[in-house]
Automatic annotation (TrEMBL):
GO terms for molecular function: oxidoreductase activity. The lineage of its organism: Bacteria, Pseudomonadati, Thermodesulfobacteriota, Desulfobulbia, Desulfobulbales. Signal peptide: none annotated. Pfam families: Pyr_redox_2. InterPro entries: FAD/NAD-binding_dom. Residues 31-284 form the FAD/NAD(P)-binding domain. This is FAD/NAD(P)-binding domain-containing protein.
Length: 299
């Protein structure tokens, strides 16, 4: 069977995904509709690994499965006070603000905390997105707190430039050590330490070293944590015969995307760790070619 025939057989190609609101009415929607016109069926609000397993999908008659579940598990700082009201991951903040259109609340059902003094932890592109979103939602001040220097900031230079242009302050060589709350369990600030750069670490970047006695407090009522995200474990934790690396990413053949489980391919962030759209799209194409070979020639 060719991939074209697979698209057109009863049942066809099925794309499982969560959640339904993920399709903005733009270029992504056009891509989805293009695929649907070719016979791809999109099944929303289905959590593979929980509502249905990979083996159950095979039992239902699917011949090959591509896993592209992404790196949606937010990392946190693991410092005291992390459960205070007013601390949330960048994933949640940006999903509410953008996909769920919380900026229109109460016209839409999704609320979003609109801080007056906002701190964003991290210095990648997601941190820049979060900081600029907070500013546009009406914050009086937005600070990016990062433990290394400007030279080590992972965000693109243009993103940093645009963030500063919008009035976002950079608190560099600063590391939060503790969140501070009021009697109602709401965030009111964070304790930080000043850092200096020492010898390079495993990543080749100079390691930030705390300056003893440099503690100071930053007032804030909203903290958005944008310090990276890990492999989404919902599907992989329920698929023991698919090999993972020590970070929980799926191990694949780099040229085909084949996993260690027969007739299962994987690609994108769940394989590489958080990366880029273009890499995820490339992985999908490589896997599609390999799936075509499998359907026509075998494993
Ligand atoms: C805030 C932010 C900004 C970014 N900006 C850029 C940018 O400007 N340029 C760029 O190139 N990259 C950017 N990236 C990175 C880019 O979004 C990712 O690298 C890319 O989307 C990875 O694609 P993917 O298909 O592997 O996973 P994703 O796009 O994350 O898709 C995974 C999908 O699988 C679904 N899913 C998860 N678990 C299950 C399950 N068990 N069952 C069914 N469905 C499941 C999820 O709901 C999701 O829809 C950004 C990322 C973030 C978080």
């Amino acid at each position: 069977m060719t991939i074209f025939e697979a698209f057109h057989k009863p049942g066809g190609v099925l794309v499982y995904g969560i959640p339904e609101f993920r399709l903005p009415k733009d270029i992504v929607a056009q891509e989805v509709h293009f695929l649907e016109r070719q016979g791809v069926k999109v099944e929303c609000n289905a959590v593979v690994g929980r509502t249905v397993s990979l083996d159950e999908l095979f039992e239902q008659g699917f011949d090959a499965i591509y896993v592209g579940v992404g790196a949606g598990l937010p990392r946190f700082m693991n410092i005291p006070g992390e459960n205070l009201v007013g601390i949330l991951s960048a994933n949640e903040y940006l999903t509410r603000a953008n996909l769920m259109k919380a900026y229109k609340y109460p016209e839409v059902d999704t609320p979003i905390p609109k801080g007056k003094n906002v701190v964003v932890l991290g210095a990648g592109n997601v941190a820049m997105d979060s900081a600029r979103t907070a500013m546009r939602l009406g914050a009086d001040s937005v600070k990016i707190v990062y433990r290394r220097s400007r030279d080590e900031m992972p965000a693109r230079k243009a993103e940093i430039h645009h963030a500063e242009e919008e009035g976002i302050e950079l608190f560099l060589l600063t590391n939060p050590t503790k969140y501070l709350g009021d009697e109602n369990g709401r965030l009111v600030g964070m304790e930080c330490l000043r850092m200096e750069l020492g010898e390079p670490d495993d990543s080749g970047r100079r390691r930030p070293v705390a300056i003893v006695g440099s503690e100071f407090t930053v007032d804030c009522d909203l903290c958005i944590v944008a310090v990276g995200s890990g492999a989404n474990p919902l599907l992989t934790s329920e698929t023991p015969d698919m090999k993972l690396n020590k970070w929980g990413n799926v191990v694949t053949d780099p040229s085909t995307g084949k996993t260690t489980k027969k007739a299962v391919w994987a690609g994108g962030d769940i394989v590489t760790g958080a990366a880029t759209v273009i890499l995820a799209m490339g992985a999908g194409r490589d896997a599609a070619n390999s799936i075509h070979d499998y359907l026509t020639l075998g494993w």
